Structure formats: structure tokens, C-alpha cells
Amino acid sequence: MNPIGFGSITFACLFGGALLGMRLRNALPEHHMNDDSRHLLQTGLGIIGTMAGLVLGLLVASATSSYNAQRNEVDDVSSKVVLLDRVLAHYGPETSAPRRVLRGTVQRALDTIWPEERSSGPGVRPSAGAEVLLDEIAGLSPKTDIQNALKPQAMGLLMNLAETRWLMYEQADTSVSVPLLVLLVFWFAITFVGFGLFAPWNATTVVALALCAMAVSGAVIVMLEMYTPFQGFMQISSAPLREALAHLDH
To answer: Half-sphere exposure (CA, 13 Å, Cβ side) for 119?
Structure first.
């Protein structure tokens, strides 16, 4: 789902609903807008607006939680990559091949998750490099007590890295429920129609309603952007992993 496109549709529905309400205000018979009718409409709009606001808040909170989880996983992977490289370095010169595989795997991850130009979007699926690295480390033959202690540490770090990478891949498919999002926009559209019914036709109210519609649609855009953390204008930075890559082989 394109966040900007859906946000534009949301703005059109909300602001269009407000303008429709303004037109209905002049078309409705006078007794339809008496005090009793106004009181009932305002109560109903308050209920709908409260429900819509609560649902939007929950959706934004869920999207923020998902976004922060992915960002923390990038930091976790970056730190463990450096630690794994240092463990292999202290193991001895026998790990030169696994360290080269590790560096190549990190470089490929950077190229696929944060591509400079990639029409199909970022590729979060883990590559086969981790399995090659697993075979390389498993094939080491410890000869000293230090090597006997470091090999299990390296294997444990590698397994944790693989687990986190697959977790990132599985979380990449997390998205908001489309029917719930459509229902949310419908609720807000009803609310804005009600706003238009009680708003006088002048430039101030039109601009105010447009800004309100823009605020709601902006929240929808930000929420959808946070569900795609490796693309868009809220893209998670690749700086931690690039910094880790710079420390490898040092």
C-alpha cells in the first residue's frame, strides 16, 4: 500500500466530506437544524470522533512499536557482527576465511536492504552467506584452550545473528488491516461531514477544516510509513551496520 497515495485519498475523503456538509447545511430544511437536531448530531459525532481517534491512536502506537523493534534489531545485528568478528580474530589466523565470508555477507545485506536504486524495493530476506559462514566456523578444529572456549561463542553469536535476520524478514510482512483502515477513514469522513453541517461558509472555516483533514491524513501516512521501515522517508538508517562493516578486519 502506497502511504502517500492512501494519505491523499484520506485527505480527499475528509475535506470532501466537510465541503459536502457545508453544502447540505444550505440544502436542508430549517427544522432539520433546530436545537434538538443539533444536540443529537453533536452527540453522535462526538461518539464517532472518539472511536476514530482511539483507533487511530492504537494503530499509530502499533506501527511505532513495529518500527522501533526493527530499528533495535538493526542495532543488535550491527553490534553482534563486530563482536563475532573480534571473537574470530582472537581465535587465530585460521579464521581468515570465515572473516572474509562475514564481511561479504554484511556487504550484501547492506546492498539488498538499503539499495541505492532498486525498483522492486529492499530485500530483507537473509542470504545464503550465513549458512556458508556456519559451515566455515563449524569446520574449525580448536587446538588450544582459548580456541576451545571461543568456538562455541562464535557459533552462539552466529546463531543469534541468523535468528534476528529471519525475525526481520518475517516482520517485514507486518502491515495494518486494510478493512480497519478503510473503516477508520469512513468514521473520520462522517465526522467531517458533521463539522461541515455546523460550519459557516467562509475562508477561515474552509482553511481550518482543510488543515484538520491534513493533520489526520498526515497521521495515516506516518503510520503506514512506519510499517515499511526499510523504504520511504522514514527509512531506518543503515549507519549502524555500515559502521560495523568499517570495523571488520581491523
So the answer is: 0
Q: Please give the C-alpha separations between residue 177 and each of 11, 48, 188, 203, 215, in angstroms, as whole numbers.
A: 19, 19, 17, 36, 21
Tell me the residue length of the chain: 250
The pLDDT tens digits for 109-153 are 888 888 764 444 555 555 555 677 888 888 888 888 988 999 899
Query: Of 107, 94, 165, which Cα lies nearest the Cα of 131?
Result: 165
Angle between helices 145-171 and 129-138 (to 10 degrees): 160
Nearest CA-CA partner of 223 in 166, 184, 190, 165 = 184
pTM higher than the cut 0.85: no
Rounded Cα distance between 181 and 187, Å, is 10
Which stretches of the chain score pLDDT less than 50? Answer: 117-120
* Residue in 173, 144, 137, 143 with CA at minimum distance from that of residue 158: 137
Q: How far is CA 63 from CA 59, 141, 145, 189, in A?
A: 6, 46, 48, 22
Helices marked H in the chain — which ranges? Answer: 3-27, 35-91, 96-113, 129-138, 145-171, 178-198, 203-226, 239-247
Per-residue DSSP letter, 238: S
**Which residues contact residue 244 at a Cβ distance below 8 angstroms, ignoring those fewer than 6 apart?**
78, 79, 81, 82, 106
